[in-house]
Specification:
Length: 382
C-alpha cells in the first residue's frame, strides 16, 4: 500500500499523462469537455439556489452540501463511464485507474448511498415536507443538467460535427424566429411566451433547415469535424484523424423523375452529389425547430411557477446560464438518441479498446478462440 505522498505523486503523473495524450490529439477535445462541465456546474448552481430560496431552508445546514454531493456523485458516475469507453487503453497503464474503472459502478453506488443516509440523518421535525421537496428538487436538477451534459460529451466524442451542428441549429432557430416574429409576427403561438408567434415559429423552422444543410455540407469536408475521437496504439495518443465514415463521404443521388426531366431541359445533370450527413441534418433541424423551442417554453413555465424573471444574473441582459442553455440540453439528448439509433455501429477499433483492458492471458485466450472459429468457418487456413 503506497503512502499518501506516493499516491499524490502517482495521481499527478497520471493527470499529466492523460492531459498529454489529449493535448497531442489533433484538435483535442479537452477544452470542449471542460467548458461543458463548467456550464453544467453553473446551471446546477442556479437551479439549486432557486430551490433554496423558494423553500426558505436557510435554517437547515445540509441542503447545499447534500446537493453538491449528489452532483459530484452523478458526475463521477457519468464521466467515469466515458473514461471506461474512450480512455480505457490509457487508463489501463495506471494501476490506480485500472482499479477505479473495474469498481467504478460500485464506487458510484456507494457514494450515492452515503448521500442517501446523510439526507435521512439530516431530517428535522416540522421540516420533513420541505426537506423531501428539496431532495426531489435536487434529483430533478441532476436529471435535467448533469445527465444532459454527459450526452453533450458523448456527442463530442463521436465527432465535433455532432456538437457544432445541433448547437448552431438552436442558435439559428432562436435568432431567425425572433427576426420573423419581429417583422411579420401577428398570431400568438403559446400563452407561456406571449411574444412567440406562428410566423416566427414557421419562418425560424424553414431557415434552420436551409442554413443547417449549408453548415453541414461545409463541415463534412473537414476531417477534424467528422472524425470521432479514437486512440492510436501506434502513436500512443488520442487523435482526430480517420477514414471518414460513409455518411461523411460524397455520394451521387438520382433526382426524382419530375425534377430530373426539368433538370435535363435546362441542360443540367439528372443526379446530385451530396454528403449523406446533410440529409441527417434535416432530421436534426426539424427537431431543433419544432421540439427545441419547447425547452424554452418549459423554462418559461418553470420561472412563472416560482415567480422569478431569470435563473440568474451572470449574463447582463440575458439572465443566468440556464436561460441560455435551456433548449441546448433537450437537443443534446435527441442527438445522442439519434446517433445510437441510426448512426452508431460496433467497430473493430472499439472492440479492440475493450480487448486491451483484458489481462494478457485473457487476450491470448481470446486470440486462440477467434483463430479456431475463423479456421472452423473456412475464413483462415489451418
Amino acid at each position: 500500500m503506497c503512502g499518501v505522498d506516493d499516491l499524490s505523486v502517482e495521481l499527478r503523473k497520471m493527470r499529466l499523462r492523460w492531459f498529454g495524450h489529449v493535448r497531442r490529439a489533433e484538435g483535442g477535445v479537452l477544452s470542449e469537455v471542460e467548458e461543458t462541465l463548467l456550464v453544467q456546474v453553473w446551471c446546477f448552481k442556479e437551479i439549486i439556489n432557486i430551490g433554496y430560496s423558494v423553500y426558505r431552508m436557510h435554517g437547515l445546514p445540509w441542503f447545499r452540501s447534500l446537493s453538491w454531493w449528489f452532483s459530484i456523485t452523478s458526475n463521477y458516475f457519468f464521466y467515469g463511464e466515458s473514461v471506461a469507453d474512450y480512455f480505457s487503453v490509457i487508463s489501463s497503464k495506471s494501476d490506480i485507474m485500472r482499479w477505479l474503472i473495474a469498481y467504478h459502478r460500485f464506487t458510484s453506488f456507494t457514494m450515492y448511498i452515503i448521500g442517501f443516509v446523510w439526507f435521512v440523518l439530516s431530517l428535522k421535525k416540522k421540516y420533513y415536507m420541505r426537506q423531501f421537496s428539496l431532495f426531489a428538487w435536487t434529483h430533478v436538477a441532476l436529471l435535467i443538467v448533469v445527465s444532459q451534459s454527459y450526452f453533450i460529451i458523448f456527442n463530442i466524442f463521436h465527432g465535433m460535427i455532432w456538437f457544432i451542428v445541433p448547437v448552431s441549429m438552436i442558435v439559428i432557430n432562436d435568432v431567425m424566429a425572433y427576426m420573423f416574429g419581429f417583422f411579420l409576427g401577428k398570431t400568438p403561438l403559446i400563452q407561456l411566451s406571449p411574444k412567440k408567434t406562428w410566423e416566427g415559429f414557421i419562418g425560424g423552422g424553414i431557415s434552420t433547415i436551409l442554413l443547417g444543410m449549408i453548415l453541414s455540407y461545409v463541415l463534412c469536408q473537414y476531417p477534424y469535424f467528422v472524425c470521432p475521437m479514437e486512440y492510436s496504439e501506434a502513436e500512443d495518443a488520442l487523435k482526430y484523424s480517420c477514414d471518414a465514415s460513409p455518411i461523411f463521404r460524397p455520394q451521387e443521388y438520382s433526382l426524382p423523375e419530375t425534377l430530373a426531366n426539368f433538370s435535363a431541359l435546362l441542360g443540367w445533370r439528372k443526379t446530385v452529389t451530396m454528403y449523406p450527413f446533410v440529409f441527417h441534418s434535416v432530421a436534426l433541424s426539424l427537431f431543433s425547430s419544432v421540439i427545441g423551442p419547447f425547452g424554452g417554453f418549459f423554462a418559461s413555465g418553470f420561472k412563472r411557477a416560482f415567480k422569478i424573471k431569470d435563473f440568474g444574473d451572470v449574463i447582463p441582459g440575458h439572465g443566468g446560464m440556464m436561460d441560455r442553455f435551456d433548449c441546448q440540453y433537450l437537443m443534446a439528448t435527441f442527438v445522442t438518441v439519434y446517433i445510437n439509433t441510426f448512426i452508431s455501429e460496433t467497430s473493430p477499433q472499439k472492440l479492440l479498446q475493450k480487448v486491451y483492458m483484458l489481462k494478457p492471458e485473457q487476450q491470448l485466450q481470446l486470440y486462440n478462440m477467434l483463430q479456431d472459429s475463423l479456421i472452423a468457418r473456412g475464413i483462415l487456413q489451418p
